[in-house]
Design brief:
By secondary structure, this protein is of the alpha+beta class. Strands 1-2-3-5-4 form a five-stranded antiparallel sheet, covered by helices on one side. It binds adenosine monophosphate and zinc ion. Adenosine monophosphate binds next to loops.
């Protein structure tokens, strides 16, 4: 999508602190970290949110979770939280599917 911030980051048109890239996804550190480790993993293809996941793009989402497991192993992170906000009330501010990976501090439950 031409006017999407995360499409532009995945394409390298807007700079980011890249952690990982492959043909399906892109991982980079959040610009406003909410934990000592806070990165985002996004599909390269534009999907608006989890609400846009279907049978056709579900393999990409499964791949993203495999990448999260591998990246956290590489970073030596054993405990972490994966969050995806869907829609305004849940706090989604960028309408391109992304999974937050947060680690390095105690987390509360339920989330606010
Ligand atoms: P959400 O509010 O769940 O849609 O998450 C969007 C996240 O993207 C927020 O945590 C922002 O801090 C992060 N963000 C926004 N712009 C950038 C950027 N240019 N580089 C890295 N992270 C960003
Ligand atoms: Zn996009």
């Amino acid at each position: 999508m031409s006017d999407c911030l995360f499409c532009k980051i995945a394409a390298g048109e807007i700079p980011s602190k890249k952690l990982h890239e492959d043909e399906l996804c892109y991982a980079f550190y959040d610009i406003d970290p909410q934990a000592p480790t806070h990165f985002l993993v996004i599909p390269k293809a534009h999907i608006p949110s989890v609400s846009g996941v279907d049978e056709a793009n579900a393999p990409t989402v499964g791949h993203i979770f495999a990448v999260i497991a591998e990246l956290t192993r590489t970073l030596g992170i054993e405990s972490y939280r994966v969050v995806s906000n869907i829609g305004q009330q849940a706090g989604q501010s960028v309408p391109h599917l992304h999974f937050h990976v947060l680690a390095g501090r105690d987390m509360t439950w339920p989330p606010g």
